[in-house]
């Protein structure tokens, strides 16, 4: 038996691939519509030549490695922006050398917020460079005058070329650099149009390298796609230090800022802002925006306490039931998950005996707030029951808890903090889940005058609201047919 030896060509391990995924970097020799690595559609694009694996040789060390105990951490200390709600989200302020990506829909207030931050820092003696690629310098000046964001050390330039923008950075050496937006800059060194995957990757990499080299904080404005995700390659989110999402309803003044990634602070904080013609201001206590002002309680309304990050917010849920028209009952929601509301309608009918399945239902929140936390389930169910009965929930009561398909009310986090927030706003009664870790009626709640009723099922909660009413029923097998 002979052994056949095959001579290996030099470079036999090199793999020729003319197409690469813009999302994850996966390579292939031919074009495909879907990446086999990250399953992204339309992300595979042609590259200008063969992709050959190479090994980088060792270079010269410019700065020796230091023990971590000898590293000076003061260079990366927090610098307060002067906007308390932004500082809350960032974990205390901006960090020198950090790159922050601010994403949001057009018109949500990203540029207004960053222009306000730039003016406040410039007014405290820091040089700030504001690079705009979407407006002229005169247009930015008009908006700055309208929102009172004019400072002597705030420098404006309207540029779309990356090299020219970096030249401005070299000349000014600013403490803060604002790029509005990263999709408008392009580099002459790479192919592609501004906003394309290749250009965004090159622009972001160059700006991040300049920020780290100069210890310069950089704020990047980013666009979002139709589904609400950040436009451009996902590599952009991995390269930056902080990713902030700026949300808000088009017909509401309320704006919410969340950090989805933060290398220097928490990611569970939320900043609340009020966007007006005079500018954007932080809301330290936004709960009053989410409650309707009626003299008497109205059937179909219930107040809940939700957690936005670490912040408890008191919000009101409104429900309206009407006889259905021929062709099926209509379900409409605003500020709530439609599938979650449909589930609660089914639970209310099957577990509590309320015949709401054939009614048209309209459920909404007040003030444009969006409630995504399951803790709002109990308030939605009680609002629907109140609308069906035509009897209002008492005006000084809040309710929160997750409702399951069996009609049970499950515990939610931070029960004590939620009740304390309700007490601060003047509510005296609360319906809460039966806590598995013990009673939540602490002495400080008793001093605040809050009466807490713990319930373990939806029927118990309904019995608290409507004493003496018949409890719900579970349908028999005969009733299902």
UniProtKB/TrEMBL annotation:
Residues 75-224 form the RecA family profile domain. It holds the Pfam family Zn_ribbon_LapB. Transmembrane segments: none annotated. ATP binds at residues 104-111. Keywords: ATP-binding, DNA damage, DNA repair, DNA-binding, Hydrolase, Metal-binding, Nucleotide-binding, Stress response, Zinc, Zinc-finger. It comes from the Bacteria. DNA-dependent ATPase involved in processing of recombination intermediates, plays a role in repairing DNA breaks. Stimulates the branch migration of RecA-mediated strand transfer reactions, allowing the 3' invading strand to extend heteroduplex DNA faster. Binds ssDNA in the presence of ADP but not other nucleotides, has ATPase activity that is stimulated by ssDNA and various branched DNA structures, but inhibited by SSB. Does not have RecA's homology-searching function. Plays a role in repairing double-strand DNA breaks, probably involving stabilizing or processing branched DNA or blocked replication forks. This is DNA repair protein RadA. It comes from Tersicoccus phoenicis. The gene is radA.
């Amino acid at each position: 038996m002979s052994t056949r030896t095959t001579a290996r060509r030099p470079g036999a391990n090199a793999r020729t691939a003319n197409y690469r995924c813009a999302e994850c970097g996966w390579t292939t020799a031919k074009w495909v519509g879907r990446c086999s690595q990250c399953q992204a559609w339309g992300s595979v694009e042609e590259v200008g030549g063969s992709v050959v694996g190479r090994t980088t040789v060792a270079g010269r060390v410019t700065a020796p490695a230091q023990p971590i105990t000898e590293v000076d951490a003061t260079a990366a200390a927090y610098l307060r922006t002067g906007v308390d709600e932004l500082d809350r989200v960032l974990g205390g302020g901006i960090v020198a050398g950090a790159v922050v990506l601010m994403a949001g829909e057009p018109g949500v207030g990203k540029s207004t917020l960053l222009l306000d931050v730039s003016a406040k820092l410039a007014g405290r003696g820091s040089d700030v460079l504001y690079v705009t690629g979407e407006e002229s310098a005169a247009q930015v000046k008009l908006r700055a005058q309208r929102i009172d964001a004019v400072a002597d050390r705030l420098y404006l330039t309207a540029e779309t070329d990356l090299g020219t923008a970096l030249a401005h950075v070299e000349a000014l050496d600013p403490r803060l650099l604002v790029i509005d937006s990263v999709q408008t800059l392009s580099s002459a060194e790479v192919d592609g149009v501004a906003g394309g995957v290749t250009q965004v990757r090159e622009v972001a990499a160059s700006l991040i390298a300049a920020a780290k080299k100069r210890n310069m904080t950089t704020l990047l404005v980013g666009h979002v796609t139709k589904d609400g995700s950040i436009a451009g390659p996902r590599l952009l989110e991995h390269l930056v230090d902080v990713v902030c999402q700026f949300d808000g309803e088009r017909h509401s003044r309320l704006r919410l800022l969340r950090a989805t990634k933060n290398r220097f602070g928490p990611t569970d904080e939320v900043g609340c802002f009020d966007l007006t013609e005079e500018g954007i201001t932080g809301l330290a206590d936004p709960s009053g925006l989410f409650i309707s002002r009626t003299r008497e309680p109205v059937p179909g309304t219930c107040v809940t306490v939700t957690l936005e990050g670490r912040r408890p917010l008191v919000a009101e849920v409104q429900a309206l039931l009407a006889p259905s028209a021929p062709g099926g009952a209509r379900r409409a929601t605003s500020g709530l998950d439609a599938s979650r509301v449909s589930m609660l309608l089914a639970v209310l009918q099957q577990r509590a005996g309320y015949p709401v399945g054939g009614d048209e239902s309209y459920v909404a929140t007040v003030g444009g707030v969006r409630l995504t936390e399951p803790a709002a389930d109990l308030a939605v169910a009680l609002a629907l029951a109140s609308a069906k009965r035509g009897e209002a929930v008492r005006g000084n009561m809040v309710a929160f808890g997750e409702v399951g398909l069996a009609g049970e009310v499950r515990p939610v986090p931070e029960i004590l903090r939620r009740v304390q927030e309700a007490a601060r706003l003047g509510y005296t009664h609360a319906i809460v889940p039966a806590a598995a870790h013990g009673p939540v009626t602490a002495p400080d709640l008793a001093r605040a005058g809050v009466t807490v009723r713990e319930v373990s099922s939806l029927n118990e909660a309904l019995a608290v609201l409507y004493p003496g009413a018949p409890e719900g029923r579970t349908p028999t097998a005969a009733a299902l047919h």
